[in-house]
Structure formats: structure tokens, C-alpha cells
Queue: 4 jobs
Job 1
Amino acid sequence: MRTGIGVRQLRPRAPDPRAIEKSNLAGAEGVRRWRTRKLTTAELAALDAIAAMPDSEIDTSDMPEFTEWSGAARGGLYCPVKRLTSLWLDADVLEWSKRGGEGHQTRINAALREYVERHQR
């Protein structure tokens, strides 16, 4: 029975680095990298042409200037990769975490992350 999908189509392809939006965490281990379609030759040429232009020549009249940044938050797109693991915890620590209801694993992860961030400095 043929499905119409060849083996070649199932192999993951390395995306064009210019087609991935890079964040300030793009090189960090444990950060998901979103794959997008490859840009066409015409799209790459258009991006190169814009990159070569001075800012004063780029027409942004169809985009109003955004000046209100008071509600902005940095790092909202950070999405760490999760890994399944078994972990032995003291019974009282686990019970304390479960007392908060659903999401006890998330609370344990948040506490561990806070500890790591505090001790990495």
C-alpha cells in the first residue's frame, strides 16, 4: 500500500539559517528552534536589498511608530525543552508541592530553576 510519502520527504532538513528568527537565547542548549520554510531566491534577494539600505531609505509609512513600551516583557518567547526523568524526592517535599493542587511538577521545576539561576552567578 502506497501512502504517497517517500522516505526522502520524512527526513528532517536543516533549515536555512536566515529563515529562522534568532533570539538572544538561540545558541543556548535546551531551547527549541522553530523551523520555518526555506525562503525563495526572490525573498532572499529582497531581504539582502533591504539589509543594504540605510534606515532612512526604508519606507515604514504603513507601520505606525510604536512608542508605548511600558507593558513590554523580555523573554516571553523562551520555551525550554522538557525531558522526562525519574526523580527521588523526600516525601514531605513532594506532599508540600502536591498540596497546591494540579501543577505540582511545574512548581518543583520553578523552584529548581530559581535555585539554578541564583547559583549560576
Job 2
Amino acid sequence: MRKILLSVLFVAVSVFSFGQIFEMYTPESELVNEGDTVYCSGSAGDLLAGHVYVKNVSPNSQNVYTRKSYVSLLPGVIDAFCWAGSCYTSMVSPNYEIIDAGATATDFSTEYMPQDIVGISVIRYAFFSGHGDSTWFFIKYTSFPTSVGSNDVNRMISNPFPNPSSDNINYYVSDLQGSMTINIHNLTGQVIKTVVVQSTGLLQIEIKDLKAGVYIAEVKSGLRVIKTSRIIVR
């Protein structure tokens, strides 16, 4: 009987300890409890982004991965998440981020591109270290009708994300018609970086070589400017 009681006690302590590895917070320092829902809404023609900070409350450093799963996803929308210095459209981050004991990781973000589709999607995100989920939350996206005129452009290429960023910015290219280039200007109008878009899918642009500040990203299709965005380099 003693062996059984000790085994049950050990399992209970292990489960409790595992559940206390991480805490989640909003950028406004509000605690996000495990299983809570974060809400994000906006125009169906915009990129909707959510941010959650992850704190390691264990006594040891942790190699932390991120996993997503769909609760409900509108057909035709595009979603991604950024973690450990890169952004992914996959279900699990191939890279982990090391979070030291007591430290907080602030670079996690979710990116949702409605593609002018109106409605609601719900996605579950989990942070885990080891063999299972440590903690998770839901994000609920609500996209509203967008203004007429921006639809075609937003179907071709998303807004840049994450923004602000210190390492990379990303675009999602859905429709490549002819030549497309992205020019990054400083505030005096000088072109600092030019990228030629060669295929559809996730496009990553390295910006770690740029000084911290505000820049203008200009997307051109042929000779026509189709999108202009302000980007912030940390």
C-alpha cells in the first residue's frame, strides 16, 4: 500500500510542477491563464496580429517550442506565427527559443491574413518544453468587411510582419503577376534595400543589418507602387 501511495504522490507532484513551468502575459502585463482566449479583430483586408509574452517561472532554463492547432479556420485565410527569430506557416516551430530561469520571451506573435474573407477563426497555440504541452491559449480572429479597392492588392501580398522587428520581416505572397520588387527606404527617401519577389509563399527579408529606426517598405508590381508600409526596426 505504501508503494502505491508514494507513486500517486510522485505523479501528482510531477504534474503540478510541469504545469508551473510557464506564465503568459499580454504586452500590457495582463496575465493570460492557461486556456484563456485572446481577441483580435480588424478589416478583412488587413494583417491581424496578436502578441503574447512567455515567462519561464521554473528554476532552470528551458528550450521552448510552439505548436498551433485549428479549432475553426475560415477556408482561404492564411495564418503564421513568429518564434525563435523566424516566422512559420507550419504547425510546429522547427526551432526552439531558450528562455532562462525567470526570463520573459517577448518575440512571439501570431499573424492572420483574412484575404478579404469576413468571419471568425479560432486557433490554439501551445508552448512546450520536453514531451508535452506546458501551457496554451486560444486566439480568436474576427475580420470585418474591407473597403472596395484594396481587395486585389491584399490578395497578392500581405502587409509586413512582425512589425516592429529586429531580425527579419516577412510578407506572404499569394499571387505573383509579372515582376514584383520590395524597396526599403529610409525617411529621407534613400533606397536601403531591394528584394526581388520570385515566388509565392512566405518571403523573409533580413533587416538585422539596418539601424534601429523607422523605414518605409514599398511594394512595386512592374512600375506601379501597389503597397506602402511603415516598418520599425528595433
Job 3
Amino acid sequence: MVRLDSFLIDKYLAGMIAREEVVTKAQDPVTIQSKLQELELAQAALFSTRISNLSDAISAEQLAFHRAKRAFDEAEAKLRTLKQWNREFENRVDPLVKQTEKLHTVLANDMIKAIAYLTEAIKTLAAYSEIGPRPASSIAEPRPGQTAAQPAEPGEKKVPA
């Protein structure tokens, strides 16, 4: 896939468009401008060494030019990766945000209600424990022939005293 910035750089290097046009139409003008400056400096050095016919210097300048071009391509690839991460960020984070919001709702609403319910249950149990056991006179007396430890026979109804 050809990116707009690299397409503009290629057209600029081919002499088809002006430098200003590359910068104004680029997606990331600051990076493009700095990389263009590096490329132009390397290209100018390459041309000046070609004119002077210094074969060792030509290869060094060509190497510098290719390094600058490679650095530009790497920066462009990093920018592309960052843009992809930026697109995917919302899709990856939204489900987690929804889960966090549900937890917040539970903690903010349901837990408060649960605490209030448990507080009332504790009060009720405390009040119940203060009542204490019934006095001995209210306990049903055993019938004649039956001891207090013997339970009533099945089918036999308990008669309240």
C-alpha cells in the first residue's frame, strides 16, 4: 500500500512537485519537513561529490543518502503503526470500560443497600438476643404418665397449657 507521504516524497524526488506542496499536503508535516531536509542535505552532498568525481566520497555520500531515506521510511512505518494502535484502542478499551462501570454501579448502589440490610439484620438479632428465654411457667407441663424428657407420640397433638 502506498502512503500519501511516501507518494509525495517520491514525486518530489522525481521533480514532479515542489517541496512546499509536499509539506502542505502531507499527513504529518513536521516529520516530513525534517526528513525532507535530511534528504535534501544528503542529496546535495551526493551531487557535489559526483561533480568532483571523488569515487570514495561518492559512495560515502550515497550511503548517507540511503541512510536518510531508510530513516524516513522507518519513521513513516512507526507513524503507520501508531495510527493503527490509535484505531484499535477504542475497540480494545470499550469492553473494559463497560465492565468497570458495572462494577462501579454495584459498589455505589447495591453494596450500600446490602450494608443497610445487614445492619438491620444485626439490630434485629441483637434485639432478639436481649429478649432471652421464656420463663419456666410458660413451658407446657407434661401430661400424666409422660415425663418431661419424653416427646409426645406421633399423631398425638400437643395441648397448650
Job 4
Amino acid sequence: MKERLILITNDVGIHANGLERLAEAASAYGQVWVIAPDGQRSAVSHSVTLYASVDVFPYDYPIKGVRAFTCSGTPADCVRIGILYLMPAKPDILLSGINFGYNMGSDIQYSGTVGAAFEKKGDGSTFSFYLVGNLLLVGAAVILVALAVLIPATGQGRG
């Protein structure tokens, strides 16, 4: 059976601690691809880049086996470029986050992390994460254990 493809992004950039912790936890459950902005992109919602170039570069990620790229575009650009041009197939799961802090009520409509989650359309295997307090360390592991139980590995990316 083919290994599950997991795409991870965020809106705060490739250097974020939460992104690294999520990628580390996810690596136990499949082939992890991190495609994240090259810097802060909070509050860009689901915007995509239309009238400018978007640069994408391989990134030496600190977690063994994780394929990573940095992108000059928005979080939604990261997901779109990853799915269309970088990954071998559409990911089975998209994880967006982990961001530290709140994103509640009407603020959710501005979130680049949530906007990125919308970019993988249709099949329900998309999750956006925000953690508050000191839950960052255990949060990723708990979330991924739940995913391992709820979403079985597939033979290929969903089309």
C-alpha cells in the first residue's frame, strides 16, 4: 500500500515552531510535505496571487524525511502550488497550523491558516489548528493520533 501523503502549511511562515512540531508529529503517519510562506502572512484569508510572480524554493527542513519548500505567496498559494506542481499526487490530508493564539468568531474569515485549509477542496480531510497556552507540545501528537484512527491510509492521493 502506498504511503499516505500529508501536506502541511501555515500563515506565519516556514520558521514557525508550531509548523515544525506538527510536521514532526505527522511524519509518523505518512510522507510529509511542508510548503509554507517565506514569512508572515497572517490575515490574508483565502487570497491567491494573480498578478505577480510567486517564487518557490526547496528548504532544508530540520526534520528527517520531510520534504519542504518555501513560497513567496500566500498560504493558499502554498497549497495550490504544492498540489499542482510539487507533490506526486493530491495529498490525502492537509494540515494547516499550528498557530499560537486565538482565531474565533468573525476573526476566522481573515485567517490565512483557515484560508489555506479551504484550498484543498471537497473531501473533508483538511484541518486547521490553533492552540492557546502551553498545549503546543502535546497538541500535535494528540491531533495526529486521532487522525491515524479516523483516516485510514489510502493507496493514492484523492483525486
